[in-house]
Amino acid sequence: MHTILLVDDERLELDTLQNFVPWPDMGFEIVGTAKNGKEALAKIGELLPDIVITDVKMPIMDGIEFATIARGLLPHLKIVFLSGHDDFLYVKSALHVEAMGYLLKPLDMGELRSLMEKVKLRCADEQRVKLSSRALAIQYIKDLLNEKDEAVQKSKADEILSLKLELLISETGKFTFSLITIDEYAALSRYVADGPAAILRIEKEIERLAIGHGALIVSLNERQHLAISANEPTDNVMPWYRELGSLSQWVTLCAHPQPAKLERLSDLFRVLMDMRDRHVFLYGAGHLIVADELAEQASLSAASFAERTPSVDSLHANIRQGKPQEAAVWLRDYFSSLIEGAGMSIEPIEQACLRLLDQIYGEHVAAHLGIKEKMEDKAALIGKLAVIESVPYMEQTIRKTVLKLIERIAEQETDKHAVTVGQLKKLISEQYAQPLTIEYLAERVFMSPNYLRTIFKEHTGSTVLEYVTQVRMEHASNMLRNSALKIHEISLKVGYENPSHFCAIFLKRIGLTPNQYRKQTLRL
Q1: Domain HTH araC/xylS-type: where (predicted)?
Q2: Burial of 394 from C-beta contacts in 10 A (0-12 / 13-18 / 19+)
Q3: Residues 340, 479: Cα–Cα separation, whole Å
């Protein structure tokens, strides 16, 4: 509905207009009232009505003076005058401020409906033009971001400003630019509980920034948004960020502190991106940054990992001795050394994490009976690490894995069925490529099939068939990462004669098709 502010110094007239005209049936909503022009001016900035219906003759500030000032503040405001005087001078004044119409008191409902239908059509026409101009401006801004030629940048900026979009009107000709990113987007959407719901809430908050804080939002992709405003960052985007509450842990707002001309957007955007990427890489998700382009960049050492990383033997000892706090401290020091050695690239750290996982799983998971099925599948963990964009989140992922491993080893020490289950696991790991039935496996460990099912489920939390599938998928994942074997060849080697059946199980287990998994882990 279109919104209306009513202005009249006569209380009875104002009450009649507000309560006895069927505004909702006509497609309008009354958002406020005022008793004179001065009071109305104070309210239009807060209420931002589409239309003002005002009396002409009022004390303090009359309708003509009010309308003249109001149109200067809100150029698209529609004015309708009311008067008990059919006077040519009033009509002439109304025309001077480009009023939509002039109604005489007492109101004739037919005339009112006719005029308001005309107002509604004008609002709709202007809204269509406004939306068209907005879409065009956003596309031009995206083009400007990729432009490096200064002359072309100036030309494109002038083209954008010529559209006269309301949000891009600045008295100084300068604007403030802020980059908003949803951090760890891939991990948040796939691996974090309620992550997709959090993303939807953040997107709604970004829409609120556009509507309520006077910023033009240019969505560059699903996780990156550019906010452009004629106001200072402290007036709109920064207060908006502080209102995010718990959602701010996944959102980084990087604001350029100084207003600049639109033609500088391409250069300033790169400054914002570099500053944002540096902060998220080093410190994790969720920051409010003022990106001074002259700020000193951190000096990162290029020393090798071998010279700086602590000995992994200490971590192994902490895991074996059940020391979670010491293990966490070791990991903190380990990742600090990786940052110093990797510069600003996360890929060397990913590779180091992969090597560390291989050592942890090889030393502790394979060596302890009944541990593997209680730990996160290594192939799935590798897939998760591949999409992480910050060192702290990568450290957190590895730390959770190590602490969970310490807990599982402690539980395992007192498990009376460990030997039997371990024998069965060993048998499965040796014969996973062969047809395996519960009867055959039970016979090999000297138990009845039903009893074997029971203790295996109690001990591992999964069925024998689920464990067989897990072992086969791990071997398949290893072949996908480390060999050039074709999919149907890998399928046969892990006990599946039908490649389609193998692909379906792999997708269900890992979350990716075999081909997708192979491509995603190539860079690791």
Answers
A1: 422-520
A2: buried
A3: 33
- How confident is the model over 157-190, as pLDDT tens digits? 998 898 888 888 888 889 999 999 999 999 999 8
Q: Which of 334, 345, 329, 285 is nearest to 310 (CA)?
A: 334
The set of residues, in sequence order, having a beta carbon less than 8 Å from that of 84 and lying 6+ positions away, is 57, 104, 105
Strand-strand pairing, 224-229 and 176-182: antiparallel
Encode burial over 272-295: b for 16+ CB neighbours within 10 A, e otherwise.
Answer: bbebbbbbbbeebbbbbbbbeeee
Any residues with CB less than 8 A from the CB of 233 and at least 6 apart, and which? 176, 178, 255, 256, 257, 290
pTM of the model: 0.55
Rg (CA), the chain: 34
pLDDT in tens, 6-58: 999 999 989 999 999 999 999 999 999 999 999 999 998 888 899 999 998 88
Class of 146-290 per CATH?
A: alpha beta
Name which of 466, 468, 464, 467 is nearest 447 in CA terms. 464
Pull the structure tokens for residue 448: 């009845």
Strand partners, 80: 53, 101
Max Cα-Cα span within the chain: 110
Nearest Cα to Cα of residue 377 among 396, 350, 347, 404: 404
CB 390 within 8 A of CB 283: yes
Q: Report the 10 Å Cβ neighbour count for 36.
A: 19
Homologous superfamily of 2-107: Response regulator (3.40.50.2300)
Of the candidate CATH numbers 1.10.760.10, 1.10.10.60, 1.10.246.90, 1.10.150.20, the domain formed by 418-521 belongs to 1.10.10.60
Tokens (6 digits) for 463: 């069925």
Determine the 3-state secondary structure of 111 from DSSP: helix
